[in-house]
């Protein structure tokens, strides 16, 4: 009597292994990183130079790129720019130097995180998982978020300013969304890192750089921001655009009215009138000596001399 073989059904809901592209010209570092990521459940591709990284990312789009800053053929900053042209892609930057300029450059071109060599491979895996978790988290439900000329659609992850779509990175979008949900509230950099980045620790300059980049995209004058204000020693505050406009257009209670345009230059034979602003900040010397100003019995000024020099001395 023969028994029929019963096929074992395969699980249909097995999660897809996420793909990570490791770009590093040091074979030892690349091998160690790839090994840790593989044991953590990732599919790993490896390349050793910039041009190969760009072509591999275009051929097989990864879920995340671990990208060394110093590469032959094309540096990591240019690689990051080029692979981001095809759409948002999480990037964790590796740098062999601890210079703040290197870290800020990586963040400014759109890197989501960075790790300084030498580093712990386990920490790198945790950073990769944190960035992917944040990038893949579903947007919070709700209608459009609006503030003046800014409009943000959390579901479609679109942000508009004056009706024109803003080119925001994933982290910039999350940061703007968080600001719009908490208008008028002072937010510390530690809180922003915890609630926007999902990190319990990290370099706070990450927040500083992203705030600066966001200002460049939403402020009329990034050098004098009115939407995202710095609260020195604490953090940042998002001021709704209507409130910011009112504060700019309406003088504060008790403030002097706006200064009128300066008068035309007076003739050269008479002294120019004192400017109210200049007088307020830099008082002119008194017309009389301090002793004469304080003494009620001071002698009167001599009569006006017909000599022009005497008129100037007595003015």
How many domain regions? 2
Radius of gyration: 32 Å
**Which whole number gives the mean pLDDT?**
75
Give helix and strand order, one letter per element, not per position. Answer: EHEHEHEHEHEEEEHEHHEEHHHH
Strand order of the largest sheet: 2-1-3-4-5
User: Which consecutive residue ranges, at least 5 long each, have pLDDT under 50?
Assistant: 244-258, 263-300, 302-315
Would you report the number of β strands?
12
Calculate the terminal CA-CA distance, rounded to whole Å. 130 Å
Give a structural overview:
The chain is α/β, with parallel strands linked by helices and 315 residues long. The protein has 2 domains: 118 residues, 3-Layer(aba) Sandwich (Rossmann fold), CATH 3.40.50; 105 residues, Orthogonal Bundle (Arc Repressor Mutant, subunit A), CATH 1.10.10.10. 37% of the residues lie in helices and 15% in strands. The chain has 12 helices and 12 strands. The strands form 3 sheets. A 5-stranded parallel β-sheet has the order 2-1-3-4-5, sandwiched between helices. Strand 11 and strand 12 form a beta hairpin. The longest helix is centred in the middle third of the chain and has 16 residues. The protein is globular and about 55 Å long. The termini are far apart. The C terminus is likely disordered.
What is this structure, in a nutshell?
The protein has 315 residues and is of the alpha/beta class.
């Amino acid at each position: 009597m023969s028994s029929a073989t019963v096929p074992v059904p395969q699980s249909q809901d097995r999660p897809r292994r996420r793909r990570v592209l490791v770009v590093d010209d040091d074979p030892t570092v690349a091998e160690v990183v790839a090994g840790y990521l593989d044991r953590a459940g990732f599919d790993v591709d490896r390349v050793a130079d910039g041009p190969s990284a760009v072509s591999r990312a275009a051929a097989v789009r990864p879920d995340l790129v671990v990208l060394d800053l110093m590469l032959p053929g094309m540096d990591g900053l240019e690689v990051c720019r080029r692979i981001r042209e095809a759409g948002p892609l999480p990037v964790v930057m590796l740098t062999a130097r601890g210079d703040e300029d290197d870290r800020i450059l990586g963040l400014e071109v759109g890197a989501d995180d960075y790790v300084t060599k030498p580093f712990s491979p386990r920490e790198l895996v945790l950073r990769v998982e944190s960035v992917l978790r944040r990038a893949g988290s579903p947007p919070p439900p709700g209608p459009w978020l609006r503030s003046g000329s800014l409009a943000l659609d959390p579901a479609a992850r679109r942000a508009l300013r004056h009706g024109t779509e803003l080119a925001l990175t994933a982290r910039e979008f999350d940061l703007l969304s968080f600001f719009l949900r908490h208008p008028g509230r002072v937010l510390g950099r530690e809180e922003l890192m915890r609630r926007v980045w999902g990190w319990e620790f990290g370099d706070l300059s990450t927040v500083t750089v992203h705030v600066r980049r966001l200002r460049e995209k939403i402020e009329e004058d990034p050098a004098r921001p009115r939407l995202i204000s710095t609260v020195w020693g604490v953090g940042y505050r998002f001021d709704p655009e209507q409130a910011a406009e009112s504060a700019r257009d309406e003088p504060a209670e008790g403030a002097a009215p706006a200064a009128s345009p300066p008068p035309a230059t007076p003739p050269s034979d008479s002294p120019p009138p004192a400017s109210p602003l200049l007088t307020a900040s830099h008082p002119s010397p008194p017309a009389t000596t301090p002793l004469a100003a304080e003494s009620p019995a001071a002698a009167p000024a001599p009569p006006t001399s017909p000599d022009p020099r005497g008129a100037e001395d007595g003015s």
